[in-house]
Amino acid sequence: MAAYPTKVVSVAQMQALEAASERLGISTDTLMENAGLACAEFIRERMGGAASRKVLLLIGPGNNGADGLVIGRHLRRWGADVCCYVVRGRPVDDPKMLDALGYGVNVVDATDDSGFDKLRDWLTNSTVVVDAILGAGRYRPLEGVVKGVVEITNEHRSGHPVCDVVSIDLPTGVNPDTGETDENALAADVTLALCYPKFGIANFPGAALAGRIAVLPIGLHPEATDGIDLPVEWMTRGSAARLLPDRPIDSHKGTYGHLLIVAGSRNFVGAAALAASAAHRVGAGLVTLATPQSVYPLVAAKLTETIHLPLPEDADGRIDVSAAEIVRERITGYSALALGCGLGWSPGTTAFVDRLLLCGSDAPTLPTVIDADGLNCLAQCADWSKRLNADAALTPHPGEMATLTGRSTSEIQAGRLSTTEEFAGRWRRTVLLKGAHSVVAAPNSGLSILPFANPALAAGGTGDVLTGMIGGLLAQGLPPFAAARLGGFLHGTVGQEARDEMGASGVVASDLIHRIPQLMESLRSQGR
Questions:
Q1: Low-confidence residues of the chain, pLDDT below 70?
Q2: Helix (H, G, I), strand (E, B) or coil at 205
Q3: For residues 206-225, b (16+ Cβ closer than 10 Å) or e, as one string?
Q4: Ordered structural domains, the chain, with CATH
Q5: Which of 110, 233, 265, 297 sees the fewest Cβ atoms within 10 Å?
Q6: Beta strand pairing status for 212-216 and 307-311?
């Protein structure tokens, strides 16, 4: 595991880290050499070896181009046929260029290729194209030769899917601080984030052009971060492993808590079942599922291990407001509460949520995760954030966040990081804003980005699985911020595994659940 958390940084923050590292004895040139070697090793592994492979590197004028020259030198040293196509001129005495030439790297200058014929020839025959044009340098509109090279590369990539485009730090044309993109920006299959991901590939639309993101260490001095505020975390396997609850050998089911899930309605039976199954698989010791009376026999037949609490229902098969008293009478017997999956949204369910969670000083205080219609109901309750006693994690998708905040969905999406942080502070609760690159925030605890953008998860029920996972982790004693981060990371990872195995369409929510224990064991092994 990494010795320190992976952060998301701006250009200015990265420059400050590099300057601090240099003051501590690790030069910028050493960092550049480390970065180039790490990228070359990644590309060599991705190609299945370097010998006899053809690699085209698009070289820009700054440090990103210098990284590219180091990459080219190593790939050539390992036997690849390498061309460095210099998009913008570099100094005649550039030591990185001289080193590359010394190893036999082919160098073509765009000024000697007015019709881009040489570029097209190398594109046609290359296994990998490396984008080392602009990276995290100053953002500028693409124009002239840079624009032409990027347009031709994009055109080639769209017609030759077997050719990989690998961007160093950021795809050319992506603003490194905001994620804003030039209309002609390069689309990558993989982006190799050096040391830390930049905000440009954490935010959309830039993230949509980054492809898969791999974070590569470059040997930054371990004390370089001292005194530099880096509040945004990029969740990794290492950070997830550190959050896993312990599983002592002398434990029993009581060790891992008892989760109460209040969920389901006549029209949404599956939501309750998915949440309960996920809670079991994430390691909760006991799970009780409280559902409407007519839903109970359906879920009981499906869930062998779950305890059941049938509740009174209204004429439409939703939990009746009178059920709040039944749940409140039993609430002290549980370690955590999950509320909302398939609950339905009506005046009656709103009254039930109000009476259950917001009923004055004796309202439940146990750790709670609230999702879906639980949130929609909560939004209709006056002063809910002041009346909620529980230390809760709220898990809205952008539409639910719009309902809770009164803002439009487009406003939410345009400022995902700032909005999540703002309302976590206002509501004094953990907030997990779902979607591509989900964001998790808690008051005075910084922000975490879950690095998953996966169309396979765009299917009904996947949010119910997430709720069950977070609830199961709360039952095991994790605080809401930790449970939301870990649950979200586990959820995103199993979703990625399902997509890799089955494809981007046709994955269903239940495909995620059986993968959870194996992933958790893999993370535990990583931490040993």
A1: 1-4, 527-528
A2: coil
A3: bbbbbbebebbebebbeebb
A4: 11-230 (3.40.50.10260), 241-527 (3.40.1190.20)
A5: 297
A6: unpaired
Question: Among residues 45, 71, 50, 74, which one has the least CA distance to residue 60?
Answer: 71
CA atoms within 13 A on the CB side of 144: 6
Residue 194 has a pLDDT of 97
Q: Measured between alpha carbons, how far is 492 from 421 in angstroms, rounded to an integer?
A: 21
Please list, in sequence order, all residues whose beta carbon lies within 8 angstroms of the beta carbon of residue 489, skipping any fewer than 6 positions away: 235, 239, 240, 450
CB proximity list for 398: less than 8 A, separation 6 or greater = 409, 412, 413, 433, 434, 435
Residues 6+ apart with CB under 8 A from 94: 66, 69
Helix (H, G, I), strand (E, B) or coil at 365: coil
Q: Which two tokens stand for residue 89?
A: 């001129």
Instruction: Please report the sign of the dihedral spanned by the C-alpha atoms of residue 197, residue 198, residue 203, residue 204.
Output: negative
- Write down the residue that tokens 């039952």 correspond to: 475
DSSP string, 129-176: EEEESSTTS------HHHHHHHHHHHHHHHH-TTSEEEEESS-TTB-T
Whole-angstrom Cα distance, residue 288 to residue 285? Answer: 10
Select from 293, 296, 364 the least CA-distant residue to 329: 364
- In angstroms, the CA 525 to CA 520 distance is 9
Q: What is the DSSP letter of 311?
A: E
- What are the distances in angstroms from CA 396 to CA 161, 239, 344? 36, 23, 15
What's the Cα-to-Cα distance from 270 to each of 190, 203, 265, 344, 465, rounded to whole Å?
36, 33, 9, 13, 10
HSE, CB side, 13 Å, CA atoms: give it for residue 315.
Answer: 1
How far, in Å, CA of 518 to CA of 450, rounded? 20
Token pair recorded at residue 272: 């309750």
- Cite the DSSP H helix spans in 344-479: 347-357, 373-379, 384-387, 398-405, 409-414, 416-427, 462-475
Question: Which residues are 59's β-sheet partners?
Answer: 86, 132
